[in-house]
Each structure stands twice: as C-alpha cells, then as structure tokens.
Specification:
Chain A: It holds the Pfam family MbhD. Chain A: Belongs to the CPA3 antiporters (TC 2.A.63) subunit B family. The structure holds three protein chains of three kinds. Chain A is mainly alpha-helical. Chain A is built from eleven helices and no strands. Chain A is globular. Chain B has a single domain, classed as Helix Hairpins (Orthogonal Bundle). Chain C is mainly alpha-helical. Chain C has a domain of 223 residues. Classes of the chains: A mainly alpha, B mainly alpha, C mainly alpha. The interface between A and B is large, with 103 and 91 residues.
Chain lengths: 312, 129, 515
C-alpha cells in the first residue's frame, strides 16, 4: 500500500531530524535543519499540499533556516557556555535518558494514532458551499481570509508584535539599518540585480495568484522579504526605507484588516463579515497590505539580528 | 476505517510523532542555546507535519464521505492552519534568535569594555547584582 | 442590546490590537495617552458582556457570519465574564500606573546608553491584553492556540524589556512557552482528527458519542502537560521565578496576575468543556492534585527562604498556582457523589481571580520599591515603610488576600475548596490548605514586616554609589505622578478586600453557559 518513495522520504526525514538534533557543532545543526526543511517540503508535496509546501519553502526553509545559519555563523562558539556538554560526570546519562524517553513517548503516541478511529473534517462540505460568497476561488485563501480570518488577523498581529519586540531589543534609532554589512564577493551585487526583479515578480505573482491558485500573502511576503535581505546583504542602501517606511509597512496590514473587519458591524453584520458584493475587493486589499506587513516583519527580524552599540 | 494498516499517511503520522517527541526531549536536555532553538523548530515541524498528514486524509480516502462532499484536494482548513502555525513558529524563532544574539553579545564584552559604558548602565548593573 | 454585546465581544480583542498597531507609529508621550484611553474604552466594552452574563445569557458572536465548524465562534459565558472583568480591573490600574511612572516599564537602549522607561512596552502590553481577552472568549480550539501564542510572545517580549539581566530569563521562558503551546497544538490536532471539528462545543458533542476514550485521553494529557508548563505547575515551574523577578516593575504583575491565568482558563475549557472525560481521566486529575499539593508546600517553603522581595513574591505565585490544581480531583468526582464539582470549579476561579488582584498589587508594590531604592533585598529595605505608608497599606491588604483571610476572594476560594473537599471526604486537601495558609502568613510577614521596622540609620538604604538620574530619589523628591501611582497600587489592595464580597456573585455567574 505504501510506496517506496514515501518509505524512503520518511526515513530520510528521521535521519536528517537526528542530524539537526544530535551534533555538537552549531553550524552542522543549523545545516541539518535547513536540509530537514527541504525534505519536509518534499513530504508536503507528496501529500498534495502545494500551499503548505510553498509556505515551508519560503518562510520555513528559506527565511528561517537562513536566519539560523546566519546566527550560527555569526556566533559560532558560545562564550562561556561550555558547548553542549551537559553533565561532566555521567556523559552518557542524558543522551540515554533522552533516547529512552523519546522512544517511549513516540511508541505510546503512535500506538494511539494507529488505533484511533478518525473521522473526516465536518467542514469539508461547508467550505465548498460558502466559498463563492468570499469572492475567492482558492479554498485555502478562502479559509485564511474569510472563514477563519480572525485566526489570520491574530497571527499577523503576532508577527507585527514580534517585530515590535525585536525593535524593543534594539537601540531606539534602529541603528542596525545603517550598520555596515560584512564584505561580500563582487559577484553578489551583480547577482542581486538580476535576482531581485525576479523575486519581486515571483512575490507579486504568488500574491495575486492566491485568490485562484496556490499562493497567498504569507508565501509572497516571504519572497519579498528575501529580496530585501538580498539587497541589504549586497550593500544596497536601504536606510531611507528602514527609517521611514518600515514601521508604517509593519502595522498597515493589521490596521486595515481590523478596520475592514469593522465595516461589518457598521452595516449591522458581525465582526469580520465581508458582504459578497465587495468581498473580493476587501479580501484583496487586506491581502496586499498583509503581504507588506509580513515582508516588513520578516525583514525586521533579519535587521535586528545585528547587536546594537550598547550591547556589543 | 480501522484497517488503516500501513498507508503513506499513517507512515507520516508515525514519522511526525517521532520527530516531535525527539525534538522535545532534545530541547529539554541540551544546553547550547542555538541547539535548543533548532530543537524547538524541529518539534514545531513535527507538529505541522502531523497536521498536514491529517489534512491529506480527505484526499487519500476515496471513501463514501469524501465523494459525498466532493472534496478533491487535501483539506483546506487544516492546510490553512499549518500555514498559520508556520508563521507563528517563524515569529518565535526570530525573537529567540535575536535574544540569543543579545545574550551572547553581552557576555562577549562583560569583562573587556564595560568601562566604556555610560555611568547609568554601570549603576544599573551594580544594583541588580 | 444584543448587537452591542456582540460588538463588544469582538471589540474586546480587536480594539487593544488596533491600538497596539497604531501605538507603534507615535511618540513616547502619545503612546502613554493612547494606552490609557484604550484601556478605559476596552474596560468599558467588558461592561455589556458581563451585564448580559449576569442576566443569565451567554452571548455568542459568529465571526464573519460563518458558523462552526467552518468559522470561529466567540462565546461570553460565565468563565469568560469573570476573567474579563478581573482582567479589566487589573489592566486599567496597571496601564495608568505605567503611564504615570514610565520608569516602571523597563529600560531602553539609546545611542548614548541605557535610559529608564521603555516605549516598547505599549504595543506589547496592548497586544498581550488583546490576546488575554481573545483566550477568554474563544470558542474554537485552534483559535485558543493562536491566542495562547499571542499572549506568550508578548509576555516573553515584555520580560525582555528589563535590560540585559532579563534577556536570559526571557529566552528560557520562550523555550518553555513555545514547547507548551506546541504540545497543546498536538492535542488540538488529535482532537480534530477524532472529532472532525475545532469548535469546542461540537467537539464535546462528538466525543461524548465516541466509545474509545484513548484518543481523547491522550489529547487531554498532552494539552494538560503543555498548559502545565505555561502555568508553571511544580515540576515545570523553574522558568517562572527568574522571568517574573527579572521583569520590569509593571510587567511582573502583568505576568503573575494575568498571563498565567490565560493558561488556566484554557485548561478549564479543555477539562470541563472540550473533553468530557470523567472516569478515564481520574488518575490524571489525581496526579494534578498531588502536584498541586507539592506546589503549595514547596513553593511556600522556597518563598520563606528568599531574601529578596521579588523572588519571594514569585515563589508565592508558584505556591498559589498549587491551590488551583489541588481542586482538580474534586472537579471530576461529579458522578459518584453530589455537589463537589461546582464548588471545586468555583473555588478554582475565585482563587485565581483573588490571586490576580492580590498578586497584581503585591508585585506592583515590590517592583515600585525596587525602582525607588534600587534594590529589592529585604534587609536593605528595612524601614522603607515610613516613607511609603500607602504602599505598605496596599501590601498588607494584598497579603490578606494571598494568605486567604476573611473578607477576600482568597478566603472565599479556600472556603469553597475546603467545603468541597469535606463533602467529598478528601481531608488531605484541607490539611494542605491549612499548611499553605500558615506558610503564606510566614513568608509574607517575613517579606513585609521589615519594611515597617525602624531603619538602622536614616538614609542608609539610599544607594550610596550612584549619582545618575536612575538613582533612587530621596523620599521628598517623588513627583506627584509617582504619588498617584502609589495610590493606584493601594487601589489594588483595596480591591483585594473589596472583591471578597463578590464570592457568591461569582459562583452564580459561573453557572451561566456551563458545559
């Protein structure tokens, strides 16, 4: 019943997960995580989840692993943290306990999974029925921006507040935006000039395709953030953008989302209702601005990784 | 439905459980901060993998239920939830990464150039100690 | 009226969130003004919800008009109303306090060095409040997860506002908080697989028909462990003390008073609403009860051994958390004998809300003293009471609530818990309550009494070695705003006593929209 491809892919996931958990070197661990991201993307493609695979490729593997590898490269050896050696006396104890606990928990949970009599989601029908009311044709976009728009709103708020948090951990003038970047090979600026327009196009395509096909605000925001990071790394001056545009870009998605949600109560409907007449316009506006916020938030995470003056 | 036996989805469910559990155990046992952050993300990936495998059931089972609803691809709602979870994981990891950078940046210079700090910082530190 | 109530249910979450976004764009002074305005208006929106619940209705808001299982439903039932009201009270007081005493919000880095006060407090705190309200009124399992993450992220970031010393505790908190919510999410996934829905009420209906309880039990265990981490139940409590004591003065009361309650509310939602297990989960309930008893005793003893004020108050939080779990075995004896469960449920809520008010006040007072004197070592704070009579009065009133003396909500809760325990013939619960009460009296006396003693030398507690503007000001030089801030803390002390009269009202309120 199970194909060899799935068997091999699953085994590879386990192996690479081990690679990103066990080794002592920070660089190896983060590289392992990057590889795990690629493998998981493939699993998701196998499971026909193109949207999730795109999101994982963009946000998870692309930005997240990039962030981690960057972190590992910038601070390879933790000063005074004593590496990863947990206990000097019984060095085998912790790993052994870990393996045993992990194995027991896995067996117990998997056993439950295997005997669970599961039932298909009850929302399958309603999604199909009510999708036309939202003005979008792609199910996942419909769920994200209409059916469960409230979750998406809170989630964008989480990203916005993460940006607020890392800004709070920086100097007030966000001086990292002006800090010099490490030198890069000469080829990179050239590559950037070629890549950035392509990335921007890809981002916009993902954004506008989202209403009909796979893609959407999150995938698109990740690609646009990647373009910004690439430009910054290859010494292109983004100071004006960082100083004046980044904050408004961060909040505009959440603000407009809430204001659009407020239109419903004004018309006597519940919060976050889109009337079928203008649902598509509302969803598209919100999605475009959310993309801006997501790209700005992800770029901010990258920007603030550099320590400010007083800390360093 | 009980004779799920050993199809691809069950296989991935088991894999995801293993990834989740070992990631969690590693997170609790390891001391290096970056390794903990990676372990945290591996755990998160395990959970999300589990949710996607669940979402795939509706396309995999060509049973009467799926045909009735006419649902073609994997379940849209669960996929949307996974995207949400992914973004949340990135947000937390970003904050964690910045915190690690600050902590180690502060440790780096604890002894060497604390003389350059403004008096208010020095005072703050003395009082906290 | 219905429309207003529905609007309020949504606005309770979305208004603070909107303000959190807007506040990121404006200057420091404007942030304080907008923060206070938002706090007052948000508290205003709790009134119609609580009033409706008090009338015996449980209002619902179907977001976007998409009914469950497709959409998300917000529900304002008794549990939500009690926590909304309690949170509104604490939140308004603390917001005004933070606006009056900006130094209480941490310290921020400027190009020329560290400065007292942190403008980053405002978006994070308003976002945190939105998340708290979102958790209280949510009727959807996945939405609970998102709300929990919103609260967790902002809480971690709020801890980190305290400068260098707070980054390490903040990161530890982050690891535990995320792990806890991932376990919760695993449980949600399992429930979704078994029930085919994410709506709490619908999931319960399906689970009641399912014969095999294994999946429900596993989901319940995973969620309980995850939430136990976030609430800091005893073996998982290690993160709490450094995080809560390293946090800035106004953040500690937010964390101890409000943030851990979000975990508790979700735990109650899961145990009492989502997963209707009685017979199968009894061992888990007993385990929680045992851990709760250990928490009460160990937390109190550790609090007794502290010689700094903020860690002492933080350990007292760990002990108080124990009481909530102590009631869990009584919560699930519903079927075999009569009447213990509602009493135990009401006891948990009364104790939690009483703790919310009292700990909010006590932590704010401790943080304020640390701010003024530059230290929270109890020995060096000797005699501080003479200069801050209002503060000492507030701390005394909060101590009354935490010890559980009559008339406070703490007393009402302990009384209900003891009554339920006697009804179920669980005498050990009564013994733990008595021991915990004595120990609480001991550690709070140890923390507060030295403040009232004569100072060894006048001005010895003033910090000798600093001359900068963050140095503790002499008592005479405190600004009028800071004087008003002290009165606000006193208000929390008064509220600790005052809410004691609401015990039976809360009991009635909790009956609305019960599972």
């Amino acid at each position: 019943m199970i194909s060899p491809v799935d068997l091999a892919l699953g085994a590879a996931v386990l192996l690479v997960a081990g690679l990103s958990l066990v080794p002592r070197s920070r660089l190896v661990v983060t590289m392992g995580f990057l590889a795990l991201g690629v493998l998981v993307t493939m699993v998701w493609l196998r499971l026909d989840s193109l949207d999730v695979a795109l999101a994982e490729a963009g946000i998870g593997t692309g930005l997240l692993s990039g962030l981690m590898v960057w972190l590992a490269v910038r601070s390879p050896e933790p000063p005074g943290a004593g590496g990863m050696e947990p206990s000097p006396r019984l060095p085998w104890l912790r790993p052994a306990v870990g393996v045993v606990c992990g194995a027991v928990l896995t067996v117990v949970t998997a056993a439950v999974w295997l005997r669970v009599e599961d039932r298909l989601p009850a929302w399958g029908g309603p999604v199909e029925e009510q999708l036309p009311d939202t003005g979008v044709e792609h199910g996942i976009t419909g769920v994200l921006l209409a059916f469960r728009a409230y979750d998406t709103l809170l989630e964008s708020a989480i990203l916005m507040l993460t940006a607020a948090a890392v800004m709070a951990l920086s100097s007030t003038n966000l001086h990292q935006a002006a800090a010099p970047m490490p030198p890069v090979p000469l080829a990179l600026p050239w590559a950037t000039r070629l890549l950035v327009p392509a990335l921007v196009l890809l981002g916009l395509w993902l954004l506008f395709a989202g209403s009909r096909d796979s893609g959407g605000a999150f995938q698109s925001g990740a690609v646009l953030a990647a373009a910004l990071i690439l430009m910054r790394t290859s010494h292109i001056d983004l100071r004006g953008l960082s100083t004046y545009l980044l904050r408004p870009a961060l909040v505009v998605g959440v603000v407009v989302f809430i204001l659009a949600g407020l239109v419903g109560p004004m018309l006597g409907l519940p919060w976050l209702s889109w009337d079928p007449d203008w649902a598509f316009a509302a969803v598209l506006t919100v999605e475009v601005l959310l993309t801006t916020g997501i790209a700005a938030g992800l770029y901010m995470l990258f920007l603030t990784l550099e320590n400010p003056e007083g800390v360093r | 439905m009980l004779e799920l036996g050993f199809d691809a989805i069950t296989w991935y469910l088991v894999i995801s459980t293993a990834v989740l559990m070992f990631g969690m155990v590693r997170l609790l046992l390891v001391r290096d901060l970056v390794a903990r952050l990676v372990a945290l993300d591996v755990t998160g990936l395990g959970v999300l993998l589990m949710l996607v495998a669940l979402a795939a059931r509706s396309s995999d089972e060509t049973g009467a239920q799926a045909a009735e609803t006419g649902a073609a691809g994997p379940d849209a709602v669960l996929q949307a939830l996974v995207i949400t979870g992914l973004v949340i994981a990135v947000a937390f990891t970003g904050l964690g990464a910045v915190l690690i950078r600050r902590i180690e940046g502060a440790k780096d210079t604890e002894g060497s150039d604390s003389g350059e700090e403004s008096p208010s910082t020095a005072g703050e530190r003395d009082r906290d100690d | 009226m219905t429309e207003l109530v529905e609007f309020s249910l949504g606005a309770l979450v979305l208004l603070p969130l909107l303000a959190a976004a807007v506040v990121m764009l404006i200057g420091h002074t404007a942030r304080r003004v907008l923060g206070v305005v938002t706090a007052v208006v948000t508290a205003g929106f709790t009134v119609p919800v609580v009033a409706t619940v008090a009338d015996g209705d449980a209002p619902e808001l179907v977001l976007g008009g998409f009914t469950a299982p497709l959409g998300i439903t917000l529900r304002g039932d008794g549990l939500a109303a009690v926590f909304l009201a309690g949170t509104a009270l604490i939140a308004v007081v603390l917001t005004v306090f933070a606006a009056l005493v900006p130094a209480a919000t941490g310290e921020h880095l400027t190009p020329s060095g560290w400065r007292p006060g942190h403008p980053g407090f405002w978006p994070l705190w308003l976002g945190c409040w939105a998340g708290l309200n979102g958790v209280y009124v949510s009727g959807d399992l996945f939405n609970l997860y998102v709300g929990l993450e919103l609260v967790g992220l902002t809480a971690v970031a709020l801890v980190a506002l305290g400068g260098r010393k707070s980054w390490d505790p903040a990161l530890r908190y982050l690891f535990i908080a995320v792990l806890g919510s991932l376990l919760f999410l695993t449980g949600v996934g399992l429930l979704a697989a078994v029930t085919g829905t994410l709506d709490i009420a619908q999931a319960r209906a399906v689970l009641e028909e399912v014969e095999d309880p294994t999946a429900g039990l596993l989901a319940l265990s995973l969620m309980t462990v995850g939430l136990g981490m976030k609430i800091a139940l005893v073996p998982m409590h290690r993160w709490l003390v450094p995080a809560h004591s390293a946090a800035p003065a106004v953040v500690s009361p937010i964390l101890s008073g409000l943030v851990i309650k979000a975990g508790l509310v979700i735990l109650l939602r899961v145990w009492l609403w989502a997963v209707p297990l009685v017979a199968e989960a009894i061992w888990l309930a007993w385990l929680l009860g045992a851990l709760g008893a250990i928490a009460v005793l160990v937390g109190s003893v550790l609090a007794l051994r502290q010689d700094r004020l903020k860690p002492l108050v933080a350990y007292s939080t760990i002990a108080q958390i124990g009481y909530w779990f102590l009631a869990f075995p009584l919560l699930v004896t519903e079927h075999d004998d009569a009447g213990a469960a509602p009493g135990a449920y009401s006891a948990i809520v009364a104790l939690a809300v009483g703790h919310m008010v009292a700990k909010g006040g006590l932590f704010a007072a401790a943080g304020y003293l640390k701010l003024r004197f530059g230290t929270d070592e109890i020995a060096r704070l000797r005699g501080a009471g003479a200069q801050y009579p209002a503060l000492i009065l507030a701390m005394g009133a909060c101590a009354v609530g935490l010890i559980g003396l009559p008339v406070s909500l703490g007393f009402a809760g302990k009384w209900q818990l003891a009554t339920a325990a006697v009804g179920a013939q669980q005498w050990w619960v009564v013994v733990v309550i008595a021991a915990g009460t004595l120990l609480a009296a001991g550690y709070l006396l140890r923390g507060i009494a030295p403040l009232l003693l004569q100072a060894p030398q006048e001005s010895d507690h003033q910090l000798p070695d600093t001359g900068d503007e963050t140095a503790p000001a002499a008592a005479g030089s405190k600004t009028r705003a800071e004087g008003a801030g002290e009165l606000l803390i006193l208000l929390l002390g008064v509220a600790t006593i005052g809410t004691g009269f609401l015990g039976s009202w809360i009991y009635d309120l909790l009956g609305v929209g019960l599972w």
